[in-house]
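re the bet — no i am not wrong, look at it urself. input seq straight from the record:
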Amino acid sequence: MTVPVPAFLAADWWALGPVMALTAGLLLLLLLEFLPERPGGARSALVALAALGASAWSVWRVRDVRREIFDGMFAHDGFTVFFTLLVLGIAAVAVLIAWDYVRRTRLHAAEYQALLLAATLGMIVMAASNDLIGIFLGLELMSIALYIMVGFRRNLLESNEASLKYFLLGAFASGFLLYGIALVYGATGSTQLRAIAAFVADSPLLSSPLLVVGALLILVGFAFKVAAVPFHMWTPDAYEGAPVSVTAFMSAGAKVAAFAALVRVALSALTELQADWRPILTALAVITMTVGNVTALVQTNVKRMLAYSSIAHAGYLLVALVAGGAQGAAAAAFYLAVYAFMNLGAFGILAIMGQAREERVHLADFAGLGFRHPFLGLAMTVFLVSLGGIPPTAGFMGKVYVFGAALDAGHIPLVVVGVLNSVVSVFYYLRVTVAMYMEEPKGEPVALSWALPSRIALAATLVLTLWWGVQASDLLAAAERSVRGLL
């Protein structure tokens, strides 16, 4: 009797490379915890970096392969390759940022890095999924790891509170998403994006109200994960209560993964429903940009300020989705890449300033930083200028492409609102710069010591932020290639 070989064992095994590398690193880190002498931060970080490097290599070697795998549940295409490499790069920088921070704050290094790899694995699954069930599984893997990481400082009340709020609201949002998936399945008979797209194209819209309601519930679930208003309530508390290194990782990685999944769903499955979801996304974009920027104006805690800044940037990314088409999707992919690294750099400086039992994240803590530590002051200025969209930085080019896509699609009022919000954002970013160069520190300045990994992370993010500001063509071309297979 001949036993048929499952398709994934016969032909799709190569696609498991990135997942296997991360899983092996994750399991190794957990096994290291059972050693009589617990591994230090350096050893755990090296294991995590090795796993991330092996995963990136396994993706890069098959970067030109284009096919659906595991019976169409996942897609190995340019979009998957682009966002997998982006997520792995974010995770690598996050490991470098946490290297010395974990030691100084006395966190369990192996557990921390294992959770980071688990969250990264979930992000990759989200970006590669061609099926709503796969997206949901990746989302939950990422979310559960992040819930734990936010509350990693178990002895601090604010960390526990932030983790609990994030978990409760996240579970609520997951319920919306799962119910939306159930309704879409009930309407179309499938959870695969291509099958849903075929059903929508062949059926009158009014004959399937379940599909419309399901799509809206899925949008609500994604809106929570990208921190769009009014589903943003968790963001300031989670960012403030989490360790700075965790905030850096989740602010970049989680947003990239959630938007990657949202773009794939919108372009691959729900293109025919644009008349229904585009007005909703337009309203979300306007409200999200405005609430994020206006609320950030009154913050004195830089962590909370960057949290509201993250909300505002979600609004800019929604503008790209409203623009739609290949141009809007490519602009979103480009913006996600530049936002991730300039945001990682800003939070990396906050991590350097932190001490064992205290995080110096208030405006007053930045007084005189530009003179006491010139490189840190210069780097922070570049990151903030880029977040504000001022040339010649990557953030400026990102906004040019996003607003340009919306302008070409005829959304002139939305572009005007976006530009006005960008102008408003400059004020609160400059407050930090003013503190660094025009205010005297109160009390004795605290000496900062930052290890080589932190220097590498900071230098890498700084170079990318400046390089993509003057030479953005290569990244934009990669973003454009990545979205071609979705349309």
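see?? Residues 15-482 form one domain. told u. also The longest helix spans residues 157-188. so pay up
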